[in-house]
Design brief:
The chain is of the alpha+beta class. It contains four helices and 14 strands. Helix 2 packs across helix 4. It binds biotinyl-5-AMP. Biotinyl-5-AMP binds next to helix 1, strand 3, strand 4, strand 5 and strand 8.
Length: 258
């Protein structure tokens, strides 16, 4: 499937550790959370999604890895990390294939309305303080997927070595991180790239909140804290920092509700 082994990846800015199989690369990376370390595997046997959901990938066909990142920025900036990772994955896929991707808030990478990649960012405490484990799963060579709303590069007609994709995504994450840090955490540049690619904006959505309950309305913006701003039918807005978004429909009249 790949013309280059996944184990061949080596990069100057990252310390890439390849393992044949592991339960979850996020768990493996969290066991020794040294910033710059990346754990990648050919077979993730018990991959994790958000909110205790699973991430299912057979051996040898998906890209599953986790990078240990020290954002070097105050905690208030951390919510941008999963969005930053989504931008890096989408950019890498778009540059290496002819596919049109979009980001579903907060960080699913879609082709059309199907999920190509998922991201799970977790905060753990390392030897030198808190770090983020940035976990990425991309469906690459799969021809069958666990859920109907998923897709893979192969199913979209694109061929790409997992090793090449890993290198491109890690280069993108490093570049985005460097830009973000050097601006002192000002998300203006990152926010502009994110909003330009975010297919959720402008749609009517239902957001299922992590603690239960839902919010419905039009997704109007992603604010400077990375939150999704939803305008309800009564005109009131809410800024949501977490949740599962269901894209309901494209509004007939563009622009804000009056
Ligand atoms: C995510 O969660 O999308 C985050 C997935 C992160 C996976 C990576 S792989 C490397 C690293 N190590 C880990 O253990 N995890 C990370 P969420 O938004 O909660 O979506 C999970 C849902 O996606 C599941 O409940 C299924 O409905 C669906 N799903 C499961 N496997 C999938 C796949 N291969 N492709 C697309 N959707 C999938």
């Amino acid at each position: 499937m790949d013309s280059r082994a996944l184990s061949s990846v080596s990069l100057p800015t990252w310390d890439v550790l390849y393992v044949d199989a592991t339960a979850s690369t996020n768990a493996a990376a969290a066991a020794e959370p040294v910033p710059g370390r990346v754990v990648v595997t050919d077979h993730q046997t018990a991959g994790r999604g958000r909110l205790d959901r699973g991430w299912e990938t057979p051996a040898g066909v998906a890209l599953t890895f986790s990078a240990v990142v020290d954002p070097e920025l105050p905690d208030a900036h951390w919510p941008w990390l999963p969005l930053l990772a989504g931008v890096a994955v989408a950019d890498a896929v778009r540059r290496a294939t002819a596919l049109v991707t979009s980001l579903k808030w907060p960080n699913d990478v879609l082709v059309g309305d199907r999920k190509l990649a998922g991201i799970l960012v977790e905060r753990v405490t390392g030897p030198a303080g808190p770090v983020a484990i940035v976990g990425v799963g991309v469906n690459v060579h799969q021809t069958e997927l666990p859920v109907p709303h998923a897709t893979s590069l192969a199913l979209e007609g694109a061929r790409l070595d997992r090793a090449d994709l890993l290198e491109a995504v890690l280069a993108g994450v490093a570049g985005e991180l460097a830009g973000w840090r050097s601006s002192g955490g000002d998300p203006a540049g990152l926010r502009a790239s994110y909003r330009a690619q975010c297919g959720t904006l402008g749609l009517d959505v239902r957001v299922e909140l992590p603690g239960g309950g839902t919010v419905e309305g039009r997704a109007e913006d992603v604010d400077e804290l990375g939150r999704l701003v939803v305008r309800g039918p009564g005109g009131e807005t809410r800024a949501l920092s977490a949740g599962d978004v269901v894209h309901l429909r494209v509004p007939k009249q563009p622009g804000p509700l009056s």
